[in-house]
Every structure is written in C-alpha cells, then in structure tokens.
Specification:
By secondary structure, this protein is α/β, with parallel strands linked by helices. It folds into 3 domains: 54-256, no CATH class; 286-626, Alkaline Phosphatase, subunit A (3-Layer(aba) Sandwich), CATH 3.40.720; 631-749, Immunoglobulin-like, CATH 2.60.40. Helix content is 45%, strand content 14%. The chain has 28 helices and 23 strands. It has a 9-stranded mixed β-sheet with strand order 11-4-10-9-2-7-5-6-13, with helices on both faces. Strands 16, 17, 20, 21, 22 and 23 form a 6-stranded antiparallel β-sheet that branches. Strand 20 and strand 21 (699-702) form a beta hairpin. Helix 4 crosses helix 5 and helix 13 crosses helix 14. The longest helix has 31 residues, at 483-513. The radius of gyration is 32 Å and the shape is globular.
C-alpha cells in the first residue's frame, strides 16, 4: 500500500519571505490576481454554455422586474408553508386572502430592488432569498415550540435564548442546525465566487432612486391597506395576526412599530383631568404601619388549571392545594397579554399596571424601555410606604434583562438562580420551584417591617417532550389519542402537580412566620400544547387562573381580572392607594374612557412629558437594587497534595467563581460550602474574591477581599493591619514574626 507523505511546512522559509517582501511585490501580486480573475470571467463568458445562455440572460435582464415578482411570490408562499406547517393551509391562505398575499409579496419584491445597486446581481438575489427563508424557517420552528410567532423583539432576547438552547433543541436538531448553517454559508460563498457579474453599466443614482421609490411605495401601500382593512396595525392576538396578515408584514411591523405612538388628544389639560390634577401620583394608606400585611405575588410558569381542558381526563386531581384555595379564597380567570410565551410581558403588566395592547406587536418593554429607563412599579409604590421590596426567580439573572429591569423598577434585592443552591431540575433542565421557598424566607428576613415579594417560577416551562420521560408519573392523563401529545400533556400535568406542591409548602412556611400576609398565585400564560379556544371551558386562549390567599380575613370576592388590573385590585382591598397607574385603575376602571385614557397615561409616563409627575415629582429617579441578599463567606483554605486548593465557606453556588488578582480562575463547585481551585498557584499577597457570575460573565455580587499569606487567607483589612505591623517592626529593627499570618487566618477569626 502506498504511503501518504505529508510535506513538512517550511515555517522558517515562510517568515523569511514575509520579512523580504516589498511593496512592489504586493502591488504586482494584486495585479496578477485581478488579471487572473479577468481571464476566468472572460473564459466563462466565451464558453459554449454562456453563449447559449446569453439570449436567456438578455431577456431576464429586460424582464428582471417580472422575474423579481415571480421570485417574491414563490418565496412568500414557501414562507407561509413553513410558518403554517402545511402546504394546504398556505394554499387556502393564498386563495382566501389574495390581497393580503399580494401585499406581502410586494414587500419581498420591494427588497429585491436593491440588486440594481450591484454588479453581482445573482449573488444579491441569492442573499436576499436566503434572508427571507431564514426568517420564515425561524418562525416555523418557533411555532413548533411555542404559540407566539417569531418577531423582531425575539432578536433582542437572542443572547438569553442562547443560554437555553439545550432546552429547545435536542442533540439531533442541533446537529442538523449546524450542518444546515454550514451548508448555506458554503453555498453562499461559492455563489459569490461563481455567480458572475452584470456586464452592463451600473447607473447607481437612478438605481438608488428606484430603491427609495419601491420602499416608499410599500409605506404608502401599507397605509392604504390599513385604511381599507386589508391588514391592521393592532395585533390583539399576535399569533392570529400572523395567520391573517402574513409573516412578512407582521415581522416588519414588529421591527418598526415599537413603543406607544402619541395619541391625538395628548395635552397637559387632558392629563390633568385624567390624573386628578396629578393627585394619582401618591402613595397613601388608611391603615397603620403595623396593620399593613406582607404582599406576595407568585407568577407560576405556564400554569393554568388543567381541568379547564374539556377533553382531558386525570387519574386524580393534579392541583389539590390550589383547588382548596379556589374554594375558600378569592379567585377567577386571569387575562394574560400573550399565549404560550411572553412571560416578561405578563410580569410587566402585573408590576406596572400598564397594558401591553398599546405597545408595538410582539414588543417586550423589558428589552426596550425598562431596560434603559426607570419605571414606577408596585415596588416603587410600596417602597414609599416603608415596604422592603424583593424579587426572586429560579432562572438566570440576565434573562429578559431582569437584573437591570428590577433595578429600574425600584426593587431592593433580586435573587436569581446564581444565588440559589439548585439541587434538582426537571427532565427538561429547568430548576424545580421548591428551591424558591428558602430564598423567599431569607429575602423577607432582610427587613424588620413588611415586605413586597415578587416571585417568578420556571418549573412549568416548555417545551414538553413527546416521548415518555417520567418513569412513574403521579398523574396519568387520558382523552388524548395521539401518543406523542399524550406524553407531552402527561409531562406538563405532572409538572403542574409539582407546582401545586410548591404552593402548599410556601403557604405553610408563610403561616409559620405568623405575620399578616396576602399571597397571590397566577399563571403567566397557557402552555405551548396546541390548545384552541374551543378546547377550553372559558373559550378564551388568554385566560389562566389566579387565587388570592390571605390570613387577615379578606372577604371572598370572585372576579375575572386582567394582568394589568390585579395589583390595583389587591391594593384596593387592603386600603392601599399607591402608584400613579394603580390609583388610576382604582378610580377610573368603570369610567367611559377607561382604555383610551389608560393609553394616554402610559404614553405620558413612558414617552411623553410626564405631566402626571409635575405636581408631586417622579416616583422613582434611579435604582438602588442589590443582587442577592447574602454575601459569600470564606472560612478556610486548605492546600492539597496535588497542588490544588480547597476553599471552604458559606453560600457557595454553582455560579460562584474564584478570582485571583481580578482574574477569573478555573474552579470546581463541590457543594455550598466547598470549592476546588485548580490550575492556580497562590503566592503571598495574592488577593482572592468569590463572585456570583451570570451569563456573559456578568458579576452580580462579590465577596469581600481575602489575601493569601503563608498558606492561609486573611481578610484584606486584617492583612493590611498585619502588614503595617510587620513594616513597623522592621523599621524599629525588630525581627518580624512571620507566623503571625497564620494566627490571623480566616479560620481562626470565626466565632
């Protein structure tokens, strides 16, 4: 067998040639490459195939607009096939709504006007086609995993989504995705090299004018289409809007239609009338301070009462604790702003009292306005009444920018998963909700007075596996013929059952504190299990369930509430009148212009001149929040025989990282009291810190600084005092006692 010989690279010769290279050689090489490229192009133009295709190319150039329109029609249809997961559904959409189809086709067609600006027209067409197909495929895949379609706001949470990629993609899907991306990139690059160039003269100014005309035509056509009610600029249900108005238009609307547009009647006089001359911007209560209760809100991920599904059966009641609460305490349907996704938007409505219906389609205020600006909330309102304000979530601190958002809303502390000792996860990798209970109690212990605690759970998160992953499920479901769907429902219902146990345990812990408390449980949205309105007893996809538990004797008062109304309702029952928007709901909820004036108020506070604040000042001007409620404490450091170090202490988590001299080290979390420090050699005077680190290496909280000295760690202030003493002894001519470092070690300073 012939041996394959690999030629040894001449590295020395390469660098020798680089050193001897001249500018003239570079210019000559560039010229040679251009000439070679010109010869290749000339050869292609004069080839037999090219000569045969010249008449075709000639007619294609003459009829390029028609070709673009045909290509746009094909792309639009393929996008809808992928989005609707059905060829027949896409065909019915085309036949049933031809005006909408042509309107969306025009948008794609208008983007192809860009090709006239470039010589590489084939490549540009391919690039634009790939762009639209990627958007369509992204939408189709997201609709497989959730009810909410793909929109521009999803791009703003892309960094968050990357950290959860394993929760949505199995290994096979990830492999296919990687192969697909590589294949597309290789193909696009090859078309850049082989796609040929337009040989005629490029008239860039007329071409640019043409691009402006075609794009401007789409803007004009959009206004006409809205006036003629072919499409709408208000998406009451974003999923239905995509089905009715097509993906290209809806996605584009989500790009450009953000925030709240200024209402026509926005004036200071109007706002004075709406806000009772600014008096709604107050935080008052008719109760004495010692009569005020703790107020706790718990947002249960993807929760609703499964028995609301008419055809689903169960071996036993999946929510016995919540069922008991429903029978004895205030309850009702909870109208969420989204279906199948959009947790952060439900949070936003609950915490601010503002409605999402006035924002752009698919917008996340957490990623737009509140990420960068302060915004009054229940936290800022109750903070003025002396409440400690705590937020908790057993997911990443950076997810949906909560670390910034909760600070801008006026919370005192935010405890994310980086501060939790998470020992159990669901089969899909989400933290179980039981970890929240001790952290809630610790958060409440940070204040001597009353607390406002806002908790977001994650256990019920999708996606829900179609294969059996539970060995011995406590709840067996029936009524589903398809095995994959039955497995998904069984998984979901059993996770809901675990959430119900969490509810019961939390109430027990709250009762044990013997403090007056109001505790609200609600679901943020329906799960992504393909539900339709006809499947539900309420016949409404935006309804989940809520219940208000208390130990202060509140009257049972059942009613249906929207997410943006529930906080004001709870405040009202407690004789608390705090926060501009919450006071508005309490006073104007039954008024004639309730919704229209709410839009004006939201615009004024977020995007307007804040007339509502001119009398009493802005309720919040800056954040003051701390991440977590406990510092990491180091108690000892032990040198191991293999050269590693064992760091002992308290409050370590999986997200505790060791920094030496401000540089992150390789370390291994063993348990909440021990971390192994590997591949690090400590020297006297090295400064060591332990930080709680989130995604993108965000440092949320850092321990005090410790200094390594003679095999031990000392608190920095103690080390500095010891160091000063040593220097003083040296100055006096005395022999310093080097063993004093050990005597002042961290371990010996502990009580």
């Amino acid at each position: 067998m012939r041996k394959i010989r690999v030629k040894k690279p001449d590295i020395k010769g390469f660098f020798q040639r680089v050193r001897n290279i001249r500018w003239g050689d570079i210019k000559q090489d560039i010229k040679a490459r251009r000439e070679r490229r010109a010869r290749i192009l000339e050869k292609r133009r004069n080839s037999a195939f090219a000569k045969k295709m010249q008449p075709v190319y000639k007619w294609m150039n003459r009829l390029s607009l028609l070709c673009h329109f045909v290509l746009a029609c094909i792309l639009n249809f393929l996008i809808e096939v992928i989005s609707r997961h059905s060829l027949f559904a896409a065909w019915n959409y085309l036949i049933g709504s031809p005006k909408v189809f042509l309107f969306n086709t025009y948008l794609i067609f208008a983007t192809f006007s860009i090709v006239y600006l470039f010589k590489r027209r084939v490549f540009t067409r391919i690039l634009l086609s790939v762009f639209w197909m990627i958007l369509g495929i992204s939408n189709g895949y997201m609709l497989m995993k959730r009810v909410t379609p793909f929109n521009a706001q999803d791009l703003k949470v892309a960094s968050d989504a990357v950290s959860l990629i394993n929760n949505y993609f199995n290994p096979f899907e990830l492999t296919l995705l990687a192969i697909g991306i590589v294949a597309v990139v290789v193909w696009v690059i090859s078309m850049w090299r082989r796609g040929g160039q337009y040989t005629g003269k490029i008239y860039r100014i007329p071409a640019l004018i043409g691009v402006v005309v075609w794009i401007g035509g789409y803007v004009v056509l959009t206004n006409v289409a809205i006036d003629q009610r072919v499409v709408s600029n208000y998406f009451g249900n974003i999923a239905f809007a995509y089905e009715d108005y097509g993906f290209p238009y809806c996605f584009t609307a989500s790009v450009f239609n953000t925030g709240i547009n200024e209402p026509a009647d926005y004036t200071k006089e109007t706002m004075d009338e709406i806000t009772d001359n600014g008096d709604y911007n107050k935080s008052v209560t008719g109760k004495a301070t010692d009569e005020l209760p703790n107020i706790m809100f718990v947002q249960l991920e993807s929760y609703f009462d499964p028995t609301e599904v008419e055809w689903l059966t169960f071996s036993s009641d999946p929510i016995p604790n919540l069922r008991n609460l429903y029978a004895n305490y205030s309850r009702g349907y909870f109208k969420a702003p989204s279906v199948g996704a959009g947790t952060a938007n439900t949070e936003f409505e609950v915490l601010t009292g503002m409605s999402m219906r006035f924002f752009g389609p698919g917008e996340y205020p957490y990623k737009t306005y509140v990420k960068e600006n302060v915004c009054e909330s229940a936290a800022s309102a109750l903070g003025k009444l002396g409440y400690g304000t705590e937020a908790l979530h057993n997911n990443g601190g950076n997810f949906y920018s909560r670390a910034k958002v909760f600070n801008n809303m006026g919370f005192d502390h935010y405890t994310s998963k980086e501060f939790m000792n998470i020992l159990q996860t669901t089969p899909k990798g989400w933290a179980t909700d039981d970890v929240l209970i001790p952290n809630i109690m610790e958060s409440m212990d940070t204040t001597e007075g009353r607390d406002f605690v806002f908790t977001v759970s994650v256990q019920g998160h999708g996606d829900y596996p179609t294969e059996p992953v539970l060995e011995n499920p406590e709840i067996i479901v029936g009524g589903v013929e398809d095995e994959g769907k039955r497995n998904a429902w069984e998984y979901y219902v059993n996770e809901v059952h675990e959430m119900d146990k969490f509810v019961g345990s939390l109430i027990q812990k709250v009762q044990a504190r013997n403090e007056p408390t109001v505790l609200v449980f609600y679901g943020d949205h329906l799960p992504t299990l393909g539900l339709e309105a006809k499947d539900l007893k309420s016949r409404y996809l935006y309804n989940t369930n809520y219940v208000i538990w208390d130990n202060i004797g509140l009257e049972k008062k059942d009613m249906n509430l929207a997410a943006y109304q529930i906080m004001a309702e709870v405040f009202d029952r407690l004789d608390i009148h705090a926060g501009t928007v919450f006071n508005y709901h309490q006073n104007r909820r039954k008024s004639k212009n309730y919704q229209a004036d709410l839009e004006l108020l939201q615009y004024d506070i977020l995007y307007g001149k804040q007339y509502a604040y001119q009398k009493n000042g802005a309720p919040i001007t800056e954040g003051h929040m701390e991440m977590g409620v406990k510092d990491v404490e180091v108690t000892d450091l032990i040198s191991q025989l293999d050269g590693t170090y064992s760091i002992y202490g308290e409050n370590f988590t999986k997200w505790s990282k060791v920094y030496v001299n401000d540089e992150k080290q390789d370390s291994k979390f063993l348990n909440n009291t021990r971390i192994e420090l590997t591949d690090t050699k400590l020297e006297n005077g090295d400064e060591l810190e332990i930080s709680q680190v989130g995604s993108s290496n965000t440092i949320f909280r850092t321990s005090q600084t410790y200094v390594y000295q003679d095999g031990k760690l000392m608190k920095k202030e103690d080390w500095e005092a010891w160091k000063a003493e040593q220097e003083a002894q040296e100055a006096d001519g005395a022999q310093p006692e080097t063993d004093q470092a050990a005597e002042q070690s961290v371990s010996e300073q502990q009580p």
